[in-house]
Amino acid sequence: MESMSAVNMLSALGHDGRLAIFRLLVKAGPQGVAAGQIARALDVLPNSLSANLNILAHAGLIASRREGRSIIYSADYGAMSGLLGFLMEDCCNGAPEICSPLTAVLARVEGCGPACAPKAPA
Amino acid sequence: MESMSAVNMLSALGHDGRLAIFRLLVKAGPQGVAAGQIARALDVLPNSLSANLNILAHAGLIASRREGRSIIYSADYGAMSGLLGFLMEDCCNGAPEICSPLTAVLARVEGCGPACAPKAPA
DNA sequence: CTCATATTTCGAGAATAATGGAAATATGGA
DNA sequence: TCCATATTTCCATTATTCTCGAAATATGAG
């Protein structure tokens, strides 16, 4: 993860509408969502949506594939993981004041994610 | 962490110069760095620096205090931690594809941070 | 081939952000 | 008080981004 691509990702996500798109795509999982469905779900014009999808794709945060008449967009998990890793490790130097609290977040999150089987009985 | 403040932080960091400022302040630690020193270190005009410091401060990512003639800026660790937590937990729903690799980052990072004593001999 | 659906591309206007020079403010020292 | 240092504020210019209507492209069905 280079600093420049991190800046691109951050500024892509630093926009209300685009953050909403990305969140929707993460929730939808790897199967993705068609552009038209996104537009309806978020109530945005198809052309602004297209522009924002393009920005997210150019930043590497989402991928697209055509399926019949629709174009399906999906979140790029690796890219997001890379961005978070960059922020923790490179940007923040692994400062414990920043990173330590995240251990708790990870503990809370691992075991309740959409595709994650619980390892210990709750 | 509300979504709006996350957007503000992301767009504040989604700028070359501001990301560089923030990284410098994280490296510097809680004692912070005077504005003039930042300007010299990053070779930017004092007035653009001031504008960018203002944007970072308004996003909650940095704090400032006056010390004599200088104004000392320092990274707000809690804010950054909150942003990362929001991205993992709320934005990404704790998707294991995104969050699991971060366990390794945390493991690598805890034990080599600037203010962190090693727990096991290297 | 024609038509309907899905999405993108084009283009113009408005809004916002970035840049840098010059002046203003705040502090400390002589 | 006067001066030097440190930083911010003000202002104008340029550049970028956002928004939305309209037209263009791509696909599949009849």
Helix content of chain A: 55-70%
CATH C-level class of the domain at 3-77 in chain A: Mainly Alpha
Inertia-based shape of chain A: elongated
Multimeric status of the protein = homodimer
Task: Map the helices and strands.
The structure is a homodimer of 122-residue chains.
Chain A: H1 3-13, H2 16-28, E1 33-34, H3 35-42, H4 46-58, E2 62-67, E3 70-75, H5 77-91, H6 96-109
Antiparallel strand pairs in A: 1-3, 2-3
Chain B binds a DNA duplex (30 and 30 nucleotides) through residues 15, 17, 34-36, 39, 45-52, 54-55, 66, 68-71.
Give a description of the structure.
The structure is a homodimer of 122-residue chains. The first copy, chain A, is mainly alpha-helical. Chain A has a domain at 3-77: Winged helix-like DNA-binding domain superfamily/Winged helix DNA-binding domain (Arc Repressor Mutant, subunit A, Orthogonal Bundle), CATH 1.10.10.10. Chain A is 61% helix and 11% strand. The first copy, chain A, contains six helices and three strands. In chain A, strands 1-3-2 form a three-stranded antiparallel beta sheet. Chain A is elongated. Chain B binds a DNA duplex (30 and 30 nucleotides) through helix 3 and helix 4.
